[in-house]
Amino acid sequence: MLLPFFEWCEATTLGVVIRESLWLFPVIEALHLLALATIGGAVLIVDLRLLGFGLRSQPIIKVAQEARPWLLGSLSAILLTGVMLFVSEALKCYYNPAFWFKMGSLALAILFTSTVHRTAVLSEDTESRPVQARLVAVVSVLLWTGVGVGGRAIGFY
Amino acid sequence: MSFLQWLEQTSVSIGIRESIWTYPIVESTHVLGLCLFLGLVIVLDLRLIGAIFRGVRVSQVQGRLFPWQMAGLAIMVVTGGLLFWADPVRFYQNVFFWAKISFLMLAGVNMLAFHFTIYKTVDVWDFDTVTPVRARLAGWFSIVFWAGVVVSGRMITYNWFD
């Protein structure tokens, strides 16, 4: 059903230019990886705090607010570079199970981070509910780990 | 080089190189370790350059994140060592591998220089939003050198100059 869309992506000028260049794909891939490290820091600093580690003498809400611009910035960078990588090999992705696993994990991670996780880190009550806080952090780390592992696995198929 | 050729023939090297699962698992762990290690190093670097946690003491950010950074570093070193062990001769001949090692050494020297010079006086500037210029420089150098490690590390896959 989505195949025509993937074919269209593959045929875009951007896709063709990146695919035909020797060095564009590797360079964009490296930038994608740098954004990944940044997003790792922005997610972990908050989730470690929810687990009771890291900057635990700071309020959860403060840690989350400090991390937020870096989370959004690195997410934008990773989506932008990710789309560029994708259009250059959209058909390969279509037939790649790791790609679908990654997109599923990514959708869940973004959904969870912008709803349950966001509510938890912005609520004053979370400080007095360590079990819920830990649960939210564990789910968050697992979802983002799924994105990272799925992404790396695209190259193995 | 003869040592590397011997290393390549060890059973561990052959085992990782030829297995279906070990190599991808080790490599994925290397990438996840990157998020833990470099992600939290970047948080400290950003504090040093005054871009995050401005109201939090530098020594607190450093102290609370240090064990996690070291855990991440241990994962990186172990998985990175295994990846090297799996294919030592290829790495030895790859220009990006040597670029990565060079950036690693620069990052290491920068880290040690920071800890043994300006960080010794952290009590004086612990609360400062704008840290001393040498601390800010250490933060910027760290970001640049580690980015160099990541970019050249990723490029090892491409053997353009072999």
Radius of gyration of chain A: 18 Å
Number of helices of chain A: 7
β-strand amount of chain B: under 5%
Order of helices and strands of chain B: HHHHHHHH
The coarse silhouette of chain B is: elongated
Give the structural class of chain B: mainly alpha
- The level of helicity of chain A is over 70%
- CA(first)-CA(last) distance of chain B: 16 Å
Structural class of chain A: mainly alpha
Distance N terminus to C terminus of chain A?
A: 22 Å
Number of extended strands of chain A: 0
The mean pLDDT of chain A is: 95
Give the count of helical stretches of chain B.
8
Beta-strand content bin of chain A: under 5%
Overall average pLDDT of chain B: 94
Quaternary organisation of the protein chains: heterodimer
The main sheet of chain B comes to: none
Summarize the structure.
The complex is a heterodimer of chains A (157) and B (162). Chain A is built from 7 helices and no strands.
Name the features.
heterodimer; A: 157 residues; mainly alpha; 7 helices; 0% strand; elongated; B: 162 residues; 78% helix
Molecular structure report:
The complex is a heterodimer of chains A (157) and B (162). Helices cover 83% and strands 0% of the residues of chain A. Chain A is mainly alpha-helical. Chain A is elongated, with a radius of gyration of 18 Å. With 162 residues, chain B is mostly helical. Chain B has one domain (2-155). Chain B contains 8 helices and no strands. Chain B has helices at residues 2-9, 11-18, 22-48, 58-86, 88-92, 95-116, 122-125, 133-155. The longest helix of chain B is centred in the middle third of the chain and has 29 residues, at 58-86.
Task: Chart the SSEs and their pairings.
The complex is a heterodimer of chains A (157) and B (162).
Chain A: H1 3-11, H2 13-20, H3 24-51, H4 60-88, H5 90-94, H6 97-122, H7 130-154
Chain B: H1 2-9, H2 11-18, H3 22-48, H4 58-86, H5 88-92, H6 95-116, H7 122-125, H8 133-155
